């Protein structure tokens, strides 16, 4: 499978702190997909997004875009990369200059990348992009950022990305700062861009519900480590890793007889104080074994279309080292394995 973007054994450290540890993934160049990267705060989601965007370089490993190391691209290659890989950030207000009208943030990429040879064509492109994300140009253009709602500002940033016809959009918590009535609208717009324009989406989130609704695949991170990854129906529908199970059990259900919060797993003082070079979830895990404290579990394949980094599945095959990157695949494909 040819890859649009790959992370090969990527680790990012800041002094003694490891923000991301040995993460490998790959998105297909020929089958545009929607992939969620999920986990609680501090799990490494934003660090992963910033490395995929080329904003920071890994301490170890590589980020490759169409086979080229992002950290070693030439000026021309980097310019093409910047056009084809677009971000949508959590707080769009920080992106806007309050002294410029909304038009400025849309006109700038058109001029920088010479997308139109006349003002008339540029205006038509901008209006088309706004309509694609559900905004009326006549009600949006000419206004200042503070005159628009948070949802409108977020959709303008999606429209800006659409203008460049990117291959990949990396959306870092794109709906966490808008009200519930707009979340479904913005996420549906991202899904439409994926289906109609063939744009792959990496959706960074802590919300498993929306990930399940719109994504094909998911990777769950815990303290910088991959806990589980694979087809979203398998990982969220029947989670294998104890951390994934904890996250799924915390999704509120429309049943007033059940408390919101699922199974809260406390961390005992003894567990918290114990040296732990092994599984990072061990202090919170209800299934912890002695081997978990001293050894990092490999990426097991408990069933097709899924990886689980947990010794509970030590009798299952271990994912082949060169195939871990291919866990995100279209349906009806399986993962090549080797004996454990």
End-to-end gap: 24 Å
What is the H/E order?
A: EEEHEEHEHHHHEHEHEEHHHHEEE
CATH class type: Alpha Beta
In spatial order, strands of the major sheet run: 6-7-8-3-9-10-11
Poorly predicted regions are 258-263, 331-340
What CATH architecture do you see? 3-Layer(aba) Sandwich
CATH fold-level topology: Rossmann fold
Strand count, sense and barrel status of the largest sheet are:
7 strands, mixed
Radius of gyration: 21 Å
The computed structural class is alpha/beta
Quaternary structure annotation: single chain
Instruction: List how many beta strands DSSP finds.
Output: 13
Categorize the overall geometry.
globular
Strand content: 15-25%
Total domain units: 1
The whole-number mean of residue pLDDT values reads 87
Helix content range of the residues, please? 25-40%
Pfam families: ABC_tran, oligo_HPY
Domain ABC transporter: 5-248
Protein name: ABC transporter
Main location: membrane
Plain-language structure description:
- Belongs to the ABC transporter superfamily.
- By secondary structure, the chain is of the alpha/beta class.
- The chain has a single domain, classed as Rossmann fold (3-Layer(aba) Sandwich), CATH 3.40.50.300.
- Helices cover 32% and strands 21% of the residues.
- Strands 6-7-8-3-9-10-11 form a seven-stranded mixed beta sheet, with helices on both faces. The chain has a four-stranded antiparallel beta sheet with strand order 2-1-4-5, with helices on one face. A two-stranded antiparallel sheet has the order 12-13.
- The C terminus is likely disordered.
């Amino acid at each position: 499978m040819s890859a649009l973007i790959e992370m090969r054994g990527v680790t990012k450290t800041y002094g003694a702190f490891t923000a991301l540890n040995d993460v490998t993934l790959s998105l297909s160049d020929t089958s545009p997909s929607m992939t969620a990267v999920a986990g609680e705060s501090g799990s490494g989601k934003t660090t992963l997004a910033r490395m995929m965007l080329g904003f920071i370089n890994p301490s170890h490993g590589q980020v490759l875009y169409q086979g080229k190391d992002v950290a070693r691209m030439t000026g021309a290659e980097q310019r093409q990369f910047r056009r084809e890989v677009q971000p949508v950030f959590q707080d769009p207000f920080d992106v806007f200059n309050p002294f410029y009208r909304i038009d400025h943030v849309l006109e700038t990429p058109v001029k920088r990348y010479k997308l139109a040879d006349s003002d008339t064509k540029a205006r038509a492109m901008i209006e088309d992009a706004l309509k694609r994300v559900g905004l009326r140009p006549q009600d949006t253009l000419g206004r200042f950022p503070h005159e628009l709602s948070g949802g409108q500002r977020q959709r303008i940033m999606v429209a800006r990305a659409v203008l460049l016809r990117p291959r990949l959009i990396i959306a870092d918590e794109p709906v966490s700062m808008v009200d519930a009535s707009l979340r479904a609208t913005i996420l549906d717009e991202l899904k439409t861009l994926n289906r109609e324009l063939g744009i792959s989406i990496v959706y960074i989130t802590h919300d498993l519900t929306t990930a399940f609704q719109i994504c094909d695949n998911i990777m769950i991170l815990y303290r910088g480590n991959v806990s589980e990854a694979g087809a979203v129906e398998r990982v969220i529908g029947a989670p294998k890793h104890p951390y994934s199970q904890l996250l799924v059990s915390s999704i509120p259900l429309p049943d007033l007889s059940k408390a919101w919060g699922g199974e809260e797993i406390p961390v005992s003082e003894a567990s918290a104080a114990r040296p732990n070079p092994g599984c990072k979830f061990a202090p919170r895990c209800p299934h912890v074994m002695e081997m978990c404290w001293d050894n990092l579990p490999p990426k097991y394949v408990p069933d097709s279309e899924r990886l689980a980094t947990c010794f509970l599945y030590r009798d299952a095959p271990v994912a082949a080292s060169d195939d871990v990157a291919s866990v995100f695949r279209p349906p009806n494909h399986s993962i090549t394995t080797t004996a454990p």
